[in-house]
Amino acid sequence: MKIVLASNNQGKLAELQAMLAPLGVQLVRQSELAIPEAEEPFRTFVENALTKARHAARLSGLPALADDAGLCVDVFGGLPGVDTAFYATQFGYAKGDSNNVKALLEQMANIDNRRAALVSTLVAVRSADDPEPLIAAGRVVGEIAREPMGSNGFGFDPVMFIPEFGQTFAQLPVEVKNANSHRGKAARQMMALMRERWWI
């Protein structure tokens, strides 16, 4: 089965393709089908993911899968949350992973409470008007490290320190990270839902 991924993020495509491999589905990035990115006007991950999935399904005629994920920092009241990808732009930096990390470390320089969660919400629809979207969520709690460590992963992985491993996500081997990450947890739930509801 071919499913359009409502994202142009190469890191997400690689992770989700690997995680969903047992289903035998083929993920196609929406940009490969000339589908523009959807607006994300909402303040929750689930609303934005659903909007992105419906948009990609409507323009492709294919089932669609969307991921809305972000970093929720306790001391910031759960922010940056849905604005994670644009975090650095609030502080005068260009959009990008390395600038996001730089801005976060600057904002947290004198903060001792470094607890944070990475959250991933996956939504899949069979069609744009699917009345029963599949929704899966994964969450991993850790601490923001004082400096980036490791070269695997993307986003905030270099500063997301996971106490149970004693390392950041970017220091873990890819297969270990995928098995324990927020996206990995959401993907396992999504696989179970697709098998149950879509008969994949």
TrEMBL record:
The keyword Repeat belongs to this UniProt entry's keyword annotation: no
Coiled coil: none
Catalytic activity: ITP + H2O = IMP + diphosphate + H(+); dITP + H2O = dIMP + diphosphate + H(+); XTP + H2O = XMP + diphosphate + H(+)
Keywords associated with the record: Hydrolase, Magnesium, Metal-binding, Nucleotide metabolism, Nucleotide-binding
Superkingdom, taxonomy of origin: Bacteria
Positions of Mg(2+) binding: 39, 68
Pfam families per UniProt: Ham1p_like
Positions with a binding annotation for substrate: 7-12, 69, 154-157, 177, 182-183
Cofactor binding annotation: Binds 1 Mg(2+) ion per subunit.
Active-site residues, Swiss-Prot/TrEMBL: 68 (proton acceptor)
Function: Pyrophosphatase that catalyzes the hydrolysis of nucleoside triphosphates to their monophosphate derivatives, with a high preference for the non-canonical purine nucleotides XTP (xanthosine triphosphate), dITP (deoxyinosine triphosphate) and ITP. Seems to function as a house-cleaning enzyme that removes non-canonical purine nucleotides from the nucleotide pool, thus preventing their incorporation into DNA/RNA and avoiding chromosomal lesions.
Subunit and partners: Homodimer.
Protein name: dITP/XTP pyrophosphatase
The species this protein was found in: Polaromonas aquatica
